[in-house]
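Quick one: Glucose/Sorbosone dehydrogenase domain-containing protein from Hymenobacter glacialis, structure tokens please.
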Amino acid sequence: MKFLRNTALAFWAAGLPMAACAQAPALTTFPVGTTTVTASALTTGLDHVWELVWGPDNFLWMTERGGRISRVNPATGQVQLLLSVPDVTPTGESGLLGMALHPDFATTPHVFVVYNYTDAGSLKEKVVRYTYSAAAGSLTAPLVLLGNIPATTTHSGSRLLILPDRTLLMTTGDAQLQPEAQNRASLNGKILRLNLDGTVPADNPTAGSLVYTLGHRNAQGLVRLPDGRLYSSEHGPSNDDEINKIEPNRNYGWPNVEGACNLPSEAAFCAANNVREPLTTWTPTIAPAGLTYYDHPAIPGWRGSLLLATLKNQQLVQLPLNAAGDAITARPVFLTSAFGRLRAICVSPEGRVYLGSSNGGSDRIITLENRAFVASATRAANAFAFELFPNPARRQATLRQPLANARVTVRDLLGRAVLTLQGVGPTAVLDLAGLRAGSYSVQVEGAAGSATRQLLVE
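--- reply ---
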């Protein structure tokens, strides 16, 4: 295990981009509370950016709807084309869509993409796994995990998200076949869950079925919070765009329910079919797309919020969550019409937000950052000590620290938050049962500063 950890650390360090020699010119600035956020162009000349993923190599990974998969250096904006997928059909809204990277990328460099293709004259959708070679700068060995899903030039979804248990979630649109969203035998209008080899997980809601949730029209955003909660963004018809809290085996209503269960026929259907109402809706519609979660001290006003990229309204929308995560408390908007249609969004470990535009032919990646922020690692004067025991630990560890209202974040070797606790007092117990064996960092943050210790989970 020691060899594996050292290998992963070496891979991580090797992937760190060099700091940029100069900051990119500011295109605009805007306030978020007392923070000034600066927007700048990281790279230009793109075509319908569909997905942005912060990679474990500390590069941005990007899909463009026409079929290109690339790595983007976040310091220089240099785009490295890895593959132009040969059988993508980019017609209307179809093409190369969502992407996810294997959580164990250092040792299992698999890249998962979903895209539309043509089979015997019919448009279909499939999930394909590629293997990345850093030395060759390429993606090879395509393996189809799931295919033959009916598609049209609209309503194809599709985001991918890998869960900590190494299963893959995939959103599918109804492909304009509205009744199929309620048909459990159909893969359309669903969130699907599959193993990373394409098989059906044994603990899916229905044995032998990939269906995780049903009753979706066209979900184009999907995000998991560090505490495990899942949320999606979904296009409505001419009304009721939605943000949904995703729970396994729940029904999200489409096409029998649009938005809330507020009509007599909808209320009856909801009661009979375990329907989960959306947390919030928009009428007129805004065309919600990429969805991420922000919880970084760089922009305090966005902490604890979902951030949503929108197409029709050309806005970035903040969606603060309440403590239970079952209500959205406000909907402030930013960047209205500044960069056109916005589809992709992700957050770096340094608290920068990256947006991908989807206007066609002249698209770009936009960086949003607080240029005045100084990372806590550089604030040695504010550091303090805390206890963590036992260490190594198995299923749980006890944390003792001097702050009254601290935030505790456990990160893996690739810097990803795997456990977050808020409002922690002087003593807390960390539940490690869901973590794989390996080395982690534990960060405690509060008004007095920040401190980090290593934790070994056996």
